[in-house]
Amino acid sequence: MTAVPAVTGTATAEANPNIALIKYWGKADAAYNLPVTGSLSLTLDTAPTRTTVTLDDTLAADELVLGGVVQAARPAERVRVFLDLVRALSGRTERARVDSVNLIPTGAGLASSASAFAALAAAASAAYGLGLDDRALSRLARRGSGSASRSVFGGIVRWYPGDDASSYAEPVPADLDLAMVVAIIDAGPKTISSTVAMNRTTATSPFYPAWAESTTAQLDEMLAALDRADFTAVGELAESNSLRMHATMAGAWPPVRYQTAASIALVDAAGELRAAGVEAYATMDAGPNVKFLCRPDDADRVAAHLATVDPGARFLSARAGRGVRLLGSSE
Ligand code: ADP
Ligand code: DP6
Ligand code: CO
User: Fold this and answer.
1) Is the pTM for the entire model greater than 0.90?
2) Where in the numbering of this chain does the Mvd1 C-terminal domain appear (predicted)?
3) Ligand 2 within 6 A of CB of 285
């Protein structure tokens, strides 16, 4: 007698990282990953996460293999909690093996959690037979990592605050060709995760209410700037919003600081480029690496100048990329 195969469904999906121009920094509800404010990002056309989910009821527990290495502790637990949610939605009970590869460094402030949970949401929902539309997929991805709600879509994307039903992302049409030069000065993982740092900031920073208010206003200004295709205003708003986010976390207790001396030198380099007539605007996330918004024709010049400022840095040149895609599935 041949054994009944334990594998009942499998799916592979790929999603790209996104970099926020108006940042998400703070949860109104941590269990549902509902943000305090709206945010807006650019999905990149490079460095995707590719994730395969395979249902297998012979497993004692869900398994996460990341970059070929079996994960324990927090990363595995985070995936298990996410799969529990997918199982609850599907009414199914099988455990799963998750095999994932990030092309962007993990935990370095380069949005690995965004590409990771967008890819996992698409692969897991397909493997468990949930037929989700993009909006439902964005809401599901949000539960894994807030920023992942935005990587479901390509190009410029906004993510709405709200309740579980109304907090999803959607594309923002814009007549602007944007490029992003990513300066990787340290690919190592951060010592304090985005989740922990933002929760500490909302709980302890006296600047937090001002951050939330100004981010809501800057999001409206950003949408208006995109609508009139005003590249300079888009860049100025993005740089300002990033600086305000880092100022807010500096006010947390204990303070949170992701910017290093090398980061600051690169942020200054954006000002040097502008003084020389090349429009580049710096933005940073929860890590020391710096991203530069510029026009596609200027990307090589931007990277060349940055390389003189930090000869040890590695550069990625990106444009607007597409949203999550399913590469294959069988139930
Ligand atoms: P980042 O700046 O890279 O987004 P975060 O602190 O937001 O950093 O998230 C990093 C965490 O996201 C990792 O520690 C891990 O728990 C999770 N993660 C990253 N990539 C993957 C992946 N491909 N599959 C599952 N979980 C992942
Ligand atoms: C600074 O989405 O990684 O990159 O929801 O806790 O997983 P969790 O946090 P995460 O936070 C991203 C913060 C940011 C800004 C942004 O991407 O909007
Ligand atoms: Co993240």
Assistant:
1) yes
2) 181-309
3) yes
